[in-house]
TrEMBL record:
Source organism: Cucumis melo
Family the entry assigns: Belongs to the group II decarboxylase family.
Modified residues (N6-(pyridoxal phosphate)lysine): K366
Pfam family, one: Pyridoxal_deC
Keyword annotations: Decarboxylase, Lyase, Pyridoxal phosphate
Biological process per Gene Ontology, one example term: carboxylic acid metabolic process
Gene Ontology terms, MF aspect: carboxy-lyase activity; pyridoxal phosphate binding
Protein name in the entry: Serine decarboxylase
Cited PROSITE patterns: DDC_GAD_HDC_YDC
Cofactor(s) required, per the database record: pyridoxal 5'-phosphate
InterPro entries: Group_II_Decarboxylase, PyrdxlP-dep_de-COase, PyrdxlP-dep_Trfase, PyrdxlP-dep_Trfase_major, PyrdxlP-dep_Trfase_small, Pyridoxal-P_BS
Length: 536
C-alpha cells in the first residue's frame, strides 16, 4: 500500500511547515486512525505506542479517505429515457444524503455550529447569483448584489463593538479564517506605516499568539512570511501574560502584532484583553508600535451577552467577599442563623473599539447559525487605505482578501439578527451556559474528568478511548482531551443521551483494574482531574 509521506520542513518565519506528498488514491485497510498518543508516549490503553516519537508528540492522524465513498460524475446520455433514469438516480442520491444529514445532526456535539435555524423564507433567493465582489460600501457595475444587507449587518456589529459608522470599515468574509487573515494583514500594513508611502515590503513586526490560538493564525504567519512567537498559556487556555511580557521584552526593537483570543478553539478560554494591553504598555510599546486583532470566532458574539454570576455565602449573618476589587459586606442580626445567598452579576470583559484594538472578527456560521460558512470582519477605517485599491473592471475599490464574496450570506445574517435581536441572543447565551454547567457537573458526578471555563460553553473532558464513539458524536479531540461545544441547538435531552452512552461505554473500557482512566491534570488542572491519583 502506498501511503502518505509527511515530514517537518524548515522553520519558516517562526512557524513549522509541513512538507510531504499524499497519494490521493490511497485506501486505508483499517478505517480507524491510530490511537491518540499522550505526552508520555502512551496510548489511551496505557500501552507504549510503537510509532510515537521520542519527544512524545502526537502523530498526524488521517481520517477516512473520501475517495472510497465519493460520488462520481458521469456524462449525460443523449437518450431521453436514459436522462430520466439519471434524474431519478440523482434524486435518490440526494434523498439518501439528506437522510444521512438528519442522522448526523442528531449526534453533533464537538464543533461550534448552531444547527437550530429555519431559513425557508429565503429559499426564493436561491435562483439568483448574488455576488458582493469588491468594497461593501461602494457599488460596482455588477448589479446583482446584497450590499444593503451587508452594510446593515456591519452596522449592527459596529454598535455591538462600540465604534461609530463613520469610523469603521469591514466586510462579510467567506469564513472565520479569512477574518484572521485580513485582521493580521491590516496589522502588517499598520506597523509598516505604508498608508503614506505604500512600501511593498514585508513587515518587520512580530506576530504574537498564544499556543492555543486557532491554526489559521499560524497559517497567516506562514502566508505572510512573518516571524511568529508562540506564547504560553495557563491551564485554562488563556494567554499567559507573564510569558508574553518576557517575549515582548526580548523583541522591544520590533513592532508587535497580537492575536487575542475571544474563546480558544479547544478550551473556550478568553484572553484577558485589558491585561494584554497593560502588558504592552508596561513593556514600553506605545500605541503606534502595536496592533491587536481579536479572534472572536465563536465567543465574540456570545461574550457581550454573558453575565458572571457569583454566589456568596455567609454563615451567621457575616459576609466578607472580594469580587473583582469590589468589596461586598453584609451584616445580619445575631438572631440570624440561616445561610444568606447573595448573587452578584457583572458583565463579562468587553471587546470594544474604545480600547486600542485594531480589528475584530467572528464567524457567522457558528453561534448565529448561518447555513454556509461566513464571518464578519471589522477594523478601523483609518487602517484600510493602505490595502484598498481602485479596480476599474468593477468600477469600485477592493480591500478584501478574496474579491468575489457570497452575496447570500449577508442576507442570512441580516435575517437572523432581525429575528433574534440582542434579547434573543442573550436568552440563547444563557441557555448555552446553563446547559454547559449541567454537562460539566454530570460528568464530574460520574467520575469523569471535566473542566468548564467561567465564560465559556465549551466543556472539556478526558478523551474517550473508542474512536467509533468519537466519530459517532463528532467530538473534537486534542491529545488526551476532547470537548463538547454546547450550542443553542444542543438540548439537555441530547446531553443526557450522550452521558448515558459515555458512562455505559466507560464501564467496558475500564472494567479491568489494570486499565485506568487517563490523568489529565496537566491539561485540565488537578481539581478537574478524576484519575485515581487526583480523586482521592
Amino acid at each position: 500500500m502506498v501511503g502518505s509521506v509527511m515530514g517537518m520542513g524548515e522553520n519558516n518565519g517562526g512557524a513549522e511547515v509541513l512538507i510531504g506528498k499524499f497519494d490521493t488514491n490511497l485506501v486505508f485497510s483499517d478505517p480507524l486512525p491510530p490511537l491518540a498518543v499522550s505526552n508520555n508516549g502512551l496510548d489511551l490503553n496505557g500501552q507504549q505506542h510503537v510509532d510515537s516519537n521520542q519527544k512524545g508528540k502526537r502523530e498526524i492522524v488521517l481520517g477516512r479517505n473520501v475517495h472510497t465513498s465519493c460520488l462520481s460524475i458521469t456524462e449525460p446520455d443523449a437518450n431521453d429515457e436514459s436522462t430520466g433514469d439519471k434524474e431519478a438516480y440523482m434524486a435518490s442520491v440526494l434523498a439518501r444524503y439528506r437522510k444521512s444529514l438528519l442522522e448526523r445532526t442528531k449526534y453533533h456535539l464537538g464543533y461550534p455550529y448552531n444547527l437550530d435555524f429555519d431559513y425557508g423564507a429565503l429559499a426564493q433567493l436561491q435562483h439568483f447569483s448574488i455576488n458582493n465582489l469588491g468594497d461593501p460600501f461602494i457599488e460596482s457595475n455588477y448589479g446583482v448584489h446584497s450590499r444593503q444587507f451587508e452594510v446593515g449587518v456591519l452596522d449592527w456589529f459596529a454598535r455591538l463593538w462600540e465604534i461609530e459608522k463613520n469610523e469603521y470599515w469591514g466586510y462579510i468574509t467567506n469564513c472565520g479564517t479569512e477574518g484572521n487573515l485580513h485582521g493580521i494583514l491590516v496589522g502588517i500594513s499598520e506597523t509598516l506605516g505604508i498608508g503614506s508611502c505604500r512600501r511593498e515590503v514585508l513587515s518587520d513586526g512580530i506576530l504574537y499568539a498564544s499556543r492555543e490560538s486557532h491554526y489559521s493564525v499560524f497559517k497567516a504567519a506562514r502566508m505572510y512570511r512573518m516571524d511568529c512567537v508562540k506564547v504560553g498559556t495557563l491551564i485554562s487556555g488563556e494567554i499567559d501574560c507573564a510569558d508574553l511580557r518576557v517575549k515582548l521584552l526580548a523583541n522591544k526593537d520590533k513592532p508587535a502584532i497580537l492575536n487575542v483570543n475571544i474563546g480558544t478553539t479547544v478550551k473556550g478560554a478568553v484572553d484577558d484583553l485589558d491585561l494584554v494591553i497593560q502588558t504592552l504598555n508596561e513593556c514600553g510599546f506605545s500605541k503606534d508600535r502595536f496592533y491587536i486583532h481579536c479572534d472572536g470566532a465563536l465567543f465574540g458574539l456570545m461574550m457581550p451577552f454573558v453575565k458572571r454570576e457569583y454566589l456568596c455565602v455567609a454563615v451567621d449573618g457575616m459576609l466578607d467577599f472580594n469580587c473583582t476589587e469590589i468589596e461586598i459586606h453584609r451584616s445580619g442580626s445575631p438572631e440570624m442563623k440561616a445561610i444568606i445567598k447573595l448573587w452578584y452579576f457583572m458583565l463579562a470583559p468587553k471587546v470594544s473599539f474604545k480600547k486600542p484594538i485594531g480589528s475584530v472578527s467572528v464567524s457567522g456560521h457558528k453561534f448565529v447559525g448561518c447555513p454556509m460558512p461566513c464571518g464578519v470582519q471589522l477594523t478601523r477605517l483609518e487602517h484600510i487605505n493602505a490595502l484598498s485599491s481602485n479596480v476599474e473592471y468593477l468600477a469600485s475599490r477592493d480591500a478584501t482578501i478574496m474579491g468575489s464574496r457570497n452575496g447570500h450570506a449577508p442576507i442570512f445574517l441580516w435575517y437572523t439578527l432581525n429575528r433574534k435581536g440582542y434579547k434573543g441572543f442573550q436568552k440563547e447565551v444563557q441557555k448555552c451556559l446553563r446547559n454547559a454547567h449541567y454537562l460539566k457537573d454530570r460528568l464530574l458526578d460520574a467520575g469523569i474528568s471535566a473542566m468548564l471555563n467561567e465564560l465559556s460553553s465549551t466543556v472539556v473532558f478526558e478523551r474517550p478511548r473508542d474512536e467509533e464513539f468519537i466519530r459517532r458524536w463528532q467530538l473534537a479531540c486534542e491529545g488526551s482531551i476532547a470537548h463538547v461545544v454546547v450550542m443553542p441547538s444542543v438540548s439537555q435531552e441530547k446531553l443526557d443521551d450522550f452521558l448515558a452512552e459515555l458512562v455505559e461505554k466507560r464501564s467496558t473500557w475500564y472494567d479491568d483494574e489494570n486499565v485506568q482512566p487517563p490523568c489529565v491534570a496537566a491539561e485540565l488542572g488537578n481539581e478537574s482531574c478524576a484519575c485515581k491519583l487526583h480523586r482521592s
